[in-house]
Amino acid sequence: MKIGVLTFHRCINYGSYWQARCLVEGLRAEGHDAELLDHDDAQVRRAEWRCALQPQLPARTPRRDLPRYAAKARYFLEAFERLPQSRRFALDRPEEAGEYDAVLVGSDEVWNFRHPWYGSKPIFFGERLRTRRLASYAASFGNHDAEHGIDPAWAAKLERFDALSVRDENSRRLVRDGLDREPELVLDPCLQFPPPPAPPSGETAPYLALYGHGFPDWFAAAVRDWADANGTRVLSIGYRNDWADEQRIEADPEEFSALIAGADAVATNFFHGCVFALHHRRPFVSAPSVYRFNKVRDLTRALAAERHMVTEQTPRETYADLLETPLDPAIGARIAAMRAKSSAYLAAALA
Q1: What is the pLDDT of residues 66-93, one digit of tens each?
Q2: Cβ atoms of residues 280 and 105 within 8 Å
Q3: CB-CB contact of 308 with 284 (8 Å)
Q4: Is 297 in contact with 269 (CB distance < 8 Å)?
Q5: Bridge-partner residues for 4, per DSSP?
Q6: Is the peptide bond between 107 and the residue preceding it cis, with omega within 30 degrees of 0?
Q7: Predicted confidence band of residue 121 (pLDDT cuts 50, 70, 90)
Q8: What whole-number distance in Å separates Cα of residue 277 and Cα of residue 295?
Protein backbone atom coordinates (compact mmCIF):
# COMPACT_ATOMS: atom_id res chain seq x y z
CA MET A 1 0.00 0.00 0.00
CA LYS A 2 1.00 3.60 -0.47
CA ILE A 3 0.95 4.92 3.11
CA GLY A 4 1.45 8.45 4.39
CA VAL A 5 2.63 8.83 7.98
CA LEU A 6 1.50 12.09 9.56
CA THR A 7 3.40 13.08 12.68
CA PHE A 8 5.78 15.68 14.15
CA HIS A 9 8.68 14.45 12.03
CA ARG A 10 10.67 17.72 11.99
CA CYS A 11 10.79 18.41 15.72
CA ILE A 12 14.33 18.91 17.01
CA ASN A 13 13.80 16.22 19.59
CA TYR A 14 15.27 12.72 19.74
CA GLY A 15 11.97 11.01 20.53
CA SER A 16 10.04 12.75 17.76
CA TYR A 17 12.73 11.92 15.21
CA TRP A 18 13.03 8.28 16.18
CA GLN A 19 9.31 7.53 16.44
CA ALA A 20 8.79 8.99 12.95
CA ARG A 21 11.74 7.09 11.50
CA CYS A 22 10.88 3.80 13.18
CA LEU A 23 7.25 3.86 12.05
CA VAL A 24 7.94 4.66 8.39
CA GLU A 25 10.91 2.27 8.17
CA GLY A 26 8.92 -0.45 9.92
CA LEU A 27 6.10 -0.13 7.40
CA ARG A 28 8.56 -0.15 4.51
CA ALA A 29 10.17 -3.31 5.90
CA GLU A 30 6.74 -4.94 5.70
CA GLY A 31 6.57 -4.15 1.99
CA HIS A 32 4.54 -0.93 2.02
CA ASP A 33 5.45 2.20 0.09
CA ALA A 34 5.47 4.40 3.20
CA GLU A 35 6.64 7.97 3.55
CA LEU A 36 6.35 10.84 5.99
CA LEU A 37 3.94 13.61 5.02
CA ASP A 38 6.31 16.58 4.82
CA HIS A 39 4.15 19.43 6.10
CA ASP A 40 5.75 22.84 6.48
CA ASP A 41 4.89 26.08 8.21
CA ALA A 42 7.12 29.13 8.72
CA GLN A 43 5.75 29.87 12.19
CA VAL A 44 6.34 26.28 13.29
CA ARG A 45 9.91 26.37 11.95
CA ARG A 46 10.63 29.53 13.92
CA ALA A 47 9.14 27.98 17.06
CA GLU A 48 11.24 24.82 16.62
CA TRP A 49 14.47 26.79 16.25
CA ARG A 50 13.61 29.02 19.20
CA CYS A 51 12.98 25.92 21.32
CA ALA A 52 16.12 24.23 20.01
CA LEU A 53 18.32 27.16 21.03
CA GLN A 54 16.43 28.07 24.23
CA PRO A 55 15.04 24.71 25.45
CA GLN A 56 14.73 25.66 29.13
CA LEU A 57 12.89 28.98 28.97
CA PRO A 58 12.31 31.10 31.00
CA ALA A 59 15.91 30.21 31.92
CA ARG A 60 18.08 31.52 29.09
CA THR A 61 20.71 29.37 27.42
CA PRO A 62 24.25 30.46 28.42
CA ARG A 63 25.99 32.07 25.45
CA ARG A 64 28.76 29.48 25.56
CA ASP A 65 26.19 26.75 24.85
CA LEU A 66 24.45 28.38 21.89
CA PRO A 67 26.92 26.99 19.29
CA ARG A 68 26.42 23.51 20.72
CA TYR A 69 22.61 23.70 20.56
CA ALA A 70 22.89 25.12 17.03
CA ALA A 71 25.13 22.21 16.00
CA LYS A 72 22.59 19.76 17.45
CA ALA A 73 19.81 21.41 15.42
CA ARG A 74 21.89 21.20 12.21
CA TYR A 75 22.51 17.49 12.80
CA PHE A 76 18.75 17.01 13.08
CA LEU A 77 18.11 18.91 9.84
CA GLU A 78 20.60 16.63 8.06
CA ALA A 79 18.94 13.54 9.56
CA PHE A 80 15.47 14.73 8.50
CA GLU A 81 16.57 14.92 4.87
CA ARG A 82 17.54 11.24 4.88
CA LEU A 83 14.02 10.12 5.81
CA PRO A 84 11.51 8.97 3.17
CA GLN A 85 9.22 11.97 2.68
CA SER A 86 6.44 13.21 0.44
CA ARG A 87 6.69 16.40 -1.56
CA ARG A 88 6.55 19.35 0.80
CA PHE A 89 3.21 21.06 1.36
CA ALA A 90 1.79 23.77 3.59
CA LEU A 91 0.55 22.63 7.00
CA ASP A 92 -2.81 24.30 6.32
CA ARG A 93 -3.14 22.73 2.84
CA PRO A 94 -3.37 18.97 3.56
CA GLU A 95 -5.01 18.26 0.20
CA GLU A 96 -1.68 19.09 -1.45
CA ALA A 97 0.06 16.14 0.22
CA GLY A 98 -1.02 13.77 -2.54
CA GLU A 99 -3.22 10.68 -2.65
CA TYR A 100 -2.64 7.63 -0.44
CA ASP A 101 -4.16 4.22 0.07
CA ALA A 102 -3.91 4.93 3.80
CA VAL A 103 -2.75 7.68 6.12
CA LEU A 104 -1.56 6.84 9.62
CA VAL A 105 -1.74 9.75 12.07
CA GLY A 106 0.76 9.37 14.90
CA SER A 107 2.78 8.62 16.91
CA ASP A 108 3.62 11.59 19.20
CA GLU A 109 1.32 14.21 20.73
CA VAL A 110 -0.57 14.77 17.50
CA TRP A 111 -3.88 15.39 19.32
CA ASN A 112 -2.50 17.51 22.15
CA PHE A 113 -4.68 20.65 22.22
CA ARG A 114 -2.09 22.23 24.57
CA HIS A 115 0.93 21.79 22.31
CA PRO A 116 2.46 25.28 21.95
CA TRP A 117 2.58 25.33 18.13
CA TYR A 118 0.93 22.17 16.80
CA GLY A 119 -2.08 22.20 19.14
CA SER A 120 -5.52 22.03 17.46
CA LYS A 121 -4.18 21.85 13.91
CA PRO A 122 -6.99 20.24 11.85
CA ILE A 123 -4.61 18.22 9.67
CA PHE A 124 -3.78 15.91 12.60
CA PHE A 125 -7.49 15.17 12.97
CA GLY A 126 -7.70 14.00 9.36
CA GLU A 127 -9.00 17.19 7.76
CA ARG A 128 -8.79 17.30 3.94
CA LEU A 129 -6.38 14.38 3.61
CA ARG A 130 -6.78 12.48 0.34
CA THR A 131 -6.82 8.84 1.37
CA ARG A 132 -8.96 5.70 1.15
CA ARG A 133 -8.32 4.76 4.78
CA LEU A 134 -7.62 7.00 7.75
CA ALA A 135 -6.19 5.48 10.93
CA SER A 136 -4.14 6.50 13.92
CA TYR A 137 -1.12 4.70 15.30
CA ALA A 138 0.04 5.33 18.89
CA ALA A 139 -1.44 8.84 18.90
CA SER A 140 -1.42 10.83 22.14
CA PHE A 141 -3.17 13.82 23.68
CA GLY A 142 0.01 14.55 25.66
CA ASN A 143 -0.62 16.64 28.76
CA HIS A 144 -4.26 17.31 27.87
CA ASP A 145 -5.72 15.37 30.79
CA ALA A 146 -8.71 13.08 30.37
CA GLU A 147 -10.52 15.08 33.07
CA HIS A 148 -10.89 17.93 30.54
CA GLY A 149 -12.48 15.77 27.83
CA ILE A 150 -12.77 16.45 24.09
CA ASP A 151 -14.93 19.16 22.60
CA PRO A 152 -17.71 17.52 20.48
CA ALA A 153 -16.46 19.30 17.34
CA TRP A 154 -13.04 17.65 17.65
CA ALA A 155 -14.59 14.32 18.62
CA ALA A 156 -16.63 14.45 15.40
CA LYS A 157 -13.41 14.74 13.39
CA LEU A 158 -11.98 11.65 15.08
CA GLU A 159 -15.20 9.76 14.36
CA ARG A 160 -14.20 9.78 10.68
CA PHE A 161 -11.16 7.57 11.40
CA ASP A 162 -11.54 4.00 10.18
CA ALA A 163 -9.35 2.73 13.05
CA LEU A 164 -8.08 4.36 16.23
CA SER A 165 -5.13 3.47 18.44
CA VAL A 166 -3.31 5.40 21.16
CA ARG A 167 -0.11 4.90 23.14
CA ASP A 168 -1.26 5.83 26.67
CA GLU A 169 -4.22 5.20 28.95
CA ASN A 170 -4.98 8.92 29.32
CA SER A 171 -5.52 9.16 25.54
CA ARG A 172 -7.51 5.93 25.56
CA ARG A 173 -9.87 7.38 28.13
CA LEU A 174 -10.29 10.61 26.16
CA VAL A 175 -11.29 8.70 23.02
CA ARG A 176 -13.53 6.30 24.94
CA ASP A 177 -15.39 9.06 26.76
CA GLY A 178 -15.54 11.50 23.85
CA LEU A 179 -16.44 9.13 21.02
CA ASP A 180 -17.87 6.05 22.75
CA ARG A 181 -15.27 4.00 20.86
CA GLU A 182 -12.62 1.75 22.37
CA PRO A 183 -9.24 2.49 20.79
CA GLU A 184 -6.45 -0.07 20.83
CA LEU A 185 -3.54 0.59 23.18
CA VAL A 186 -0.36 0.01 21.12
CA LEU A 187 3.39 0.32 21.47
CA ASP A 188 5.36 3.42 20.61
CA PRO A 189 7.01 2.85 17.19
CA CYS A 190 10.47 2.75 18.82
CA LEU A 191 9.41 -0.42 20.64
CA GLN A 192 7.17 -1.81 17.89
CA PHE A 193 9.76 -1.36 15.12
CA PRO A 194 13.01 -1.02 17.12
CA PRO A 195 15.82 1.17 15.77
CA PRO A 196 18.83 -0.52 14.19
CA PRO A 197 21.54 -1.71 16.58
CA ALA A 198 23.39 1.28 17.98
CA PRO A 199 27.08 1.64 17.11
CA PRO A 200 29.58 1.58 20.00
CA SER A 201 29.31 4.75 22.07
CA GLY A 202 33.10 5.14 22.21
CA GLU A 203 32.96 5.51 25.99
CA THR A 204 35.23 3.33 28.11
CA ALA A 205 34.63 4.36 31.73
CA PRO A 206 31.27 3.58 33.38
CA TYR A 207 28.64 6.28 32.93
CA LEU A 208 25.02 7.08 33.63
CA ALA A 209 23.15 8.58 30.66
CA LEU A 210 21.11 11.58 31.78
CA TYR A 211 18.37 12.68 29.37
CA GLY A 212 16.01 15.57 29.97
CA HIS A 213 16.00 18.91 31.74
CA GLY A 214 14.18 20.63 34.58
CA PHE A 215 14.82 17.77 36.98
CA PRO A 216 13.56 18.27 40.54
CA ASP A 217 16.32 18.88 43.10
CA TRP A 218 15.50 15.73 45.05
CA PHE A 219 15.94 13.58 41.94
CA ALA A 220 19.22 15.24 40.95
CA ALA A 221 20.57 14.76 44.48
CA ALA A 222 19.60 11.07 44.60
CA VAL A 223 21.08 10.27 41.18
CA ARG A 224 24.22 12.29 41.92
CA ASP A 225 24.71 10.47 45.25
CA TRP A 226 24.35 7.10 43.54
CA ALA A 227 26.82 8.04 40.81
CA ASP A 228 29.38 9.31 43.33
CA ALA A 229 29.05 6.21 45.49
CA ASN A 230 29.62 3.98 42.44
CA GLY A 231 32.37 5.96 40.71
CA THR A 232 30.10 6.51 37.71
CA ARG A 233 30.21 9.60 35.48
CA VAL A 234 26.94 11.41 34.78
CA LEU A 235 26.78 12.23 31.08
CA SER A 236 24.00 14.64 30.03
CA ILE A 237 22.68 14.08 26.48
CA GLY A 238 21.10 16.84 24.40
CA TYR A 239 20.69 19.42 27.18
CA ARG A 240 22.85 21.13 29.79
CA ASN A 241 22.40 19.85 33.32
CA ASP A 242 24.99 21.53 35.52
CA TRP A 243 25.02 18.68 38.02
CA ALA A 244 26.29 16.26 35.34
CA ASP A 245 30.00 15.56 34.88
CA GLU A 246 29.90 15.97 31.11
CA GLN A 247 27.60 17.73 28.63
CA ARG A 248 26.88 16.09 25.25
CA ILE A 249 24.51 18.84 24.12
CA GLU A 250 25.27 18.47 20.41
CA ALA A 251 24.68 14.70 20.17
CA ASP A 252 22.95 13.73 16.92
CA PRO A 253 20.06 11.20 16.86
CA GLU A 254 22.32 8.22 16.19
CA GLU A 255 24.68 9.24 18.99
CA PHE A 256 21.74 9.61 21.36
CA SER A 257 20.77 5.98 20.79
CA ALA A 258 24.39 4.82 21.07
CA LEU A 259 24.93 6.67 24.35
CA ILE A 260 21.78 5.15 25.88
CA ALA A 261 22.77 1.69 24.64
CA GLY A 262 26.28 1.97 26.10
CA ALA A 263 25.25 3.37 29.48
CA ASP A 264 25.45 1.45 32.72
CA ALA A 265 22.17 3.10 33.72
CA VAL A 266 19.78 5.85 32.59
CA ALA A 267 18.10 8.71 34.46
CA THR A 268 15.41 10.68 32.63
CA ASN A 269 12.18 12.64 32.89
CA PHE A 270 11.34 12.28 29.18
CA PHE A 271 9.00 9.70 27.66
CA HIS A 272 11.48 8.53 25.05
CA GLY A 273 14.25 8.43 27.63
CA CYS A 274 12.24 5.62 29.21
CA VAL A 275 11.45 4.08 25.80
CA PHE A 276 15.12 3.92 24.78
CA ALA A 277 16.18 2.59 28.17
CA LEU A 278 13.58 -0.16 27.70
CA HIS A 279 14.62 -0.79 24.10
CA HIS A 280 18.31 -1.08 25.02
CA ARG A 281 17.47 -2.94 28.27
CA ARG A 282 19.26 -0.46 30.50
CA PRO A 283 18.44 -0.05 34.20
CA PHE A 284 16.69 3.30 34.63
CA VAL A 285 14.85 5.72 36.87
CA SER A 286 12.42 8.38 35.77
CA ALA A 287 11.26 11.50 37.59
CA PRO A 288 7.71 12.77 37.05
CA SER A 289 7.19 16.10 35.31
CA VAL A 290 4.00 18.07 34.85
CA TYR A 291 4.18 18.11 31.04
CA ARG A 292 5.09 14.42 30.59
CA PHE A 293 3.46 12.86 33.64
CA ASN A 294 0.57 11.14 31.83
CA LYS A 295 2.79 9.65 29.14
CA VAL A 296 5.51 8.31 31.44
CA ARG A 297 3.06 7.02 34.06
CA ASP A 298 0.98 5.15 31.49
CA LEU A 299 4.01 3.73 29.69
CA THR A 300 5.55 2.31 32.85
CA ARG A 301 2.20 0.93 34.02
CA ALA A 302 1.47 -0.74 30.69
CA LEU A 303 4.87 -2.45 30.65
CA ALA A 304 5.00 -3.55 34.31
CA ALA A 305 7.79 -1.03 34.93
CA GLU A 306 5.97 1.39 37.26
CA ARG A 307 8.56 1.04 40.04
CA HIS A 308 11.06 2.83 37.76
CA MET A 309 9.05 6.06 38.11
CA VAL A 310 10.31 7.44 41.42
CA THR A 311 9.02 10.18 43.72
CA GLU A 312 10.50 12.42 46.38
CA GLN A 313 9.64 9.73 48.96
CA THR A 314 11.53 6.96 47.16
CA PRO A 315 14.31 5.64 49.46
CA ARG A 316 17.91 5.98 48.27
CA GLU A 317 18.36 2.22 48.44
CA THR A 318 15.62 1.88 45.82
CA TYR A 319 17.67 4.01 43.43
CA ALA A 320 20.59 1.63 43.92
CA ASP A 321 18.36 -1.35 43.19
CA LEU A 322 16.81 0.23 40.07
CA LEU A 323 20.11 1.52 38.65
CA GLU A 324 22.20 -1.58 39.33
CA THR A 325 19.77 -4.43 38.57
CA PRO A 326 18.88 -5.70 35.07
CA LEU A 327 15.30 -5.04 34.00
CA ASP A 328 12.65 -7.46 35.21
CA PRO A 329 12.00 -10.13 32.54
CA ALA A 330 8.28 -9.39 32.98
CA ILE A 331 8.90 -6.09 31.20
CA GLY A 332 10.25 -7.85 28.12
CA ALA A 333 7.34 -10.27 28.17
CA ARG A 334 4.87 -7.38 28.33
CA ILE A 335 6.59 -5.63 25.41
CA ALA A 336 6.43 -8.82 23.34
CA ALA A 337 2.72 -9.26 24.08
CA MET A 338 1.94 -5.66 23.20
CA ARG A 339 4.03 -5.92 20.03
CA ALA A 340 1.83 -8.80 18.87
CA LYS A 341 -1.33 -6.78 19.64
CA SER A 342 0.06 -3.75 17.86
CA SER A 343 0.92 -5.82 14.77
CA ALA A 344 -2.61 -7.21 14.71
CA TYR A 345 -4.04 -3.71 15.00
CA LEU A 346 -1.91 -2.42 12.11
CA ALA A 347 -2.82 -5.37 9.89
CA ALA A 348 -6.53 -4.75 10.47
CA ALA A 349 -6.24 -0.96 10.16
CA LEU A 350 -4.50 -1.28 6.78
CA ALA A 351 -6.64 -4.13 5.41
Answers
A1: 999 999 999 999 999 999 999 999 999 9
A2: no
A3: yes
A4: no
A5: 35, 103
A6: yes
A7: very high
A8: 15
Question: How, if at all, do strands 233-237 and 207-211 pair?
Answer: parallel
Taking the C-alpha atoms of residue 221 and residue 223, their distance in angstroms, rounded to an integer, is 6
Dihedral angle, C-alpha 79, 85, 91, 96, nearest 10 ° = 160
* Residue type (1 letter), 279: H
Q: Note the pLDDT of residue 68.
A: 97
d(CA 302, CA 265): 21
45-69 pLDDT per residue, tens: 999 999 999 999 999 999 999 999 9
Look up the pTM and report it. Answer: 0.95
* φ and ψ of 111, to 5 deg: -110, 20
167 CB-contact burial (10 Å; exposed 0-12 / middle 13-18 / buried 19+): buried
| The pLDDT of residue 149 | 96
Q: Compute the distance between CA of residue 236 and CA of residue 103 in angstroms, rounded to an integer.
A: 37
pLDDT digits (tens, 9 = 90+) for 176-203: 999 989 999 999 999 999 999 888 888 8
User: Which residues have CB under 8 Å from 63's CB, separation 6+?
Assistant: none
